[in-house]
Amino acid sequence: MQELAEARAQQLREHSNFDKAGVYDPAGVGGTGVIYVLHDVTNPVPWVVKFWKGPLKWIGNLAVIGGVIGVTLHYLRFGPKQVEPEKNGGDRP
After folding, report:
1. Is the pTM of this model over 0.70?
2. In whole angstroms, how far apart are CA 79 and each of 8, 82, 83?
3. Which of 48, 51, 72 is nearest to 60 (CA)?
4. Residue 46 half-sphere exposure, CB side, CA atoms within 13 Å?
5. Which end of the chain has fewer beta carbons closer than 10 Å to its terminal beta carbon, N or C?
6. Cβ–Cβ < 8 Å for 26, 35
7. Quick one: which of 11, 12, 6, 10 has its CA closest to 24?
8. What is the DSSP annotation of the chain?
């Protein structure tokens, strides 16, 4: 399969004027059974994906942790909500 992908990338470089064509088969992905032939193999991952997986993920995790800490501190300081009984008996006849 790797040889077939390399042949297709070579064909793209020669006949379709895609000078940066190549095979994208990163070692870290291992075991997916997928090999990509890209017309531009120099930067296959867009900056938006890198931003989403990098700093934005950390900011989201910090927000979740901050929320859990805030809820816990509020509960410890004020305790559970107390429901006061109605004075006039409510809706009962």
Report:
1. no
2. 67, 9, 12
3. 51
4. 3
5. C
6. no
7. 6
8. -HHHHHHHHHHHHHHS--TT-EEE--GGG-SS---EEES--S--S-HHHHHHHTHHHHHHHHHHHHHHHHHHHHHHHH-SPPPPPPSS-TT--
Q: Which two tokens stand for residue 35?
A: 């090999």
Give me 25's structure tokens. Answer: 């088969």
Per-residue pLDDT of the chain (93 residues; tens, 9 = 90+): 888 888 999 999 999 889 999 888 777 666 667 788 888 888 777 888 888 888 999 999 999 999 999 999 999 999 988 888 887 755 655
Nearest to 26 by CA among 39, 13, 41, 12: 41
pLDDT at residue 41 in the model: 83
Q: In 3D, which of 42, 10, 7, 11 has the Cα closest to residue 24?
A: 42
Tokens for 11, please give them.
């064909």
